[in-house]
Amino acid sequence: MTFSTADLVDEHGDDLRVCDTQFRQFGAHRTFSGRVRTVSCYQDNGLVRELLRTPGDGAVLVVDGRGSLHTALTGDLIAASAVENGWAGLVINGAVRDSAVLAGLALGIKALGTNPRKSSKAGNGAVDVPVGFGGVTFVPGDSLYADDDGVVLLS
């Protein structure tokens, strides 16, 4: 996969939506892209875990955890299931844990930071609904491109 988000901005201009959130990189794949799937949740990764156990078909899961760094929404086991099921990446508006293990997984992972604390697993939230952060709305089915410079979207 060869692209640069900066080049995509130059090519598409205002048709491209640029997320302003300043993410950290956690996965082994620093550049990734795919069709957007979403989870909206708060300190509860039950839906994230459930969805990443299904075939990803190269999609990117965008998780809106409302920016909470109090609990991790993904760790090594959940991310490993994403790799096993063919997901291209995760963009998490929240925290992850097991960052040393995540760094070796063949997956793109962007998140705000880390916290070793587990989240609840009740399954509260919603799947495949529009979620917004960083000045953009992530709509299921959009095309997402991510690299070291940021995250961009095309409808």
TrEMBL record:
InterPro entries: RraA (IPR010203), RraA/RraA-like (IPR005493), RraA/RraA-like_sf (IPR036704)
GO-annotated biological processes: regulation of RNA metabolic process
Coiled-coil annotated residue ranges, if any: none
Signal peptide (from-to): none
Enzyme class: lyase
Keyword Ribosomal protein on entry: no
Pfam family, one: RraA-like
EC number: 4.1.1.112, 4.1.3.17
Cofactor(s) this protein requires: a divalent metal cation; Mg(2+)
Keywords: Lyase, Magnesium, Metal-binding
Catalytic reactions on record: 4-hydroxy-4-methyl-2-oxoglutarate = 2 pyruvate; oxaloacetate + H(+) = pyruvate + CO2
CDD domains for the chain: RraA_family
Domain of life: Bacteria
Chain sites annotated for binding Mg(2+): D98
GO MF assignments: 4-hydroxy-4-methyl-2-oxoglutarate aldolase activity; metal ion binding; oxaloacetate decarboxylase activity; ribonuclease inhibitor activity
Binding site for substrate: G75, D76, L77, I78, R97
Task of the protein: Catalyzes the aldol cleavage of 4-hydroxy-4-methyl-2-oxoglutarate (HMG) into 2 molecules of pyruvate. Also contains a secondary oxaloacetate (OAA) decarboxylase activity due to the common pyruvate enolate transition state formed following C-C bond cleavage in the retro-aldol and decarboxylation reactions.
Family as reported in the entry's similarity comment: Belongs to the class II aldolase/RraA-like family.
Assembly behavior: Homotrimer.
Official protein name in the record: 4-hydroxy-4-methyl-2-oxoglutarate aldolase
